[in-house]
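Thread: "does anyone have the structure for this chain?"

Original post by V.I.:
We have the sequence but no experimental structure in hand. Need at least a predicted one for the grant figures.
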Amino acid sequence: MITFPMRIALAICALVGVGILFTFQWPGGLEAVQRGYRGTAMVQLFNAPTIASELAANQLPAVLPPVHAGPPASVVYKNVQVLGSLDVGAFTRLMASITTWVAPTQGCAYCHSLNNMASDALYTKVVARKMIQMVQNINGNWKTHVAETGVTCYTCHRGMPVPANLFFHGASPSTFTGMAETQTGKNVVSVAAGLASLPYDPFTPFLEQDYNIRIEGPEALPDGNRTSIKQTDWTYALMMHFSTALGVNCTYCHNSRQFADWSQSSPQRMTAWYGIRMVRDINNNYLDTLQGVFPPARLGPLGDNAKVNCLTCHQGVYKPLFGVSPVAGFPELGGKP
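Reply from O.Q.:
Generated one for you, tokens below.
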């Protein structure tokens, strides 16, 4: 005889089963791209329906035609601390474009006081100025990662005032679980690591700080290599983030027969190496320097500013916007003046 508690348990199991069923990706429409010798697992798998939806979500907005007219913006407007050398026409076009990229609903009032456009009273204007400098730095000094494709505000913001994928310093797991492994950051659901029980925050040590990511020793036995399994867990959590952020698997950068060997790795591994250092530069020299500018509502649980990771730009595809250059029509963002 099935009792009432048993019926409740069966109903819960059925709901969980349905949830798991819809978590998996159906194999129909899979396309394999060979990236190495056959039989060595050097294959990238792409799901055609997923790619179709990603293509739709990675389209650039319409670009305003170039305009060059008038004296320098710093002569016409007050308090132009960045891009003041642009003529008024080009400056106005860029401001209108930034509005489309970042705050299409709020308009100019998102950063400017409409009664006094020169005022820095709104924190968003101070942040926007720093972000323009950051974009110039990325395009000018990190071509080893962004090449000539470059970035604009739209690369991360996608029409939203706050980008969708950011990270904050998280509270220690010891504050919300009693498990023995809490001090390693494990045994909690790690969204960053693909919902695994790996360390929940691989971003702070590797993408803000410069902890050593490479932990594999060159010898068969330890022979002086003191890295531990716990350190390996942190590295693996970061690798899971890379895979999720770019929509690829390990062999996009690594050779399956020898993951550690740079000479056998794909060129994308070097691009990723520079990307890690670029993200650290962004977080340390731009976003962290704005501490005290953002209001409390924009801070994390420990009071820190938001920071970027790989998903912020890539948004699940191997090249942001599938490699279409957003900066091509905006040379003023192409590098430091």
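V.I.: this helps a lot. Residues 267-287 form the longest helix (21 residues).
O.Q.: and The CA atoms of residues 293 and 315 lie 27 Å apart.
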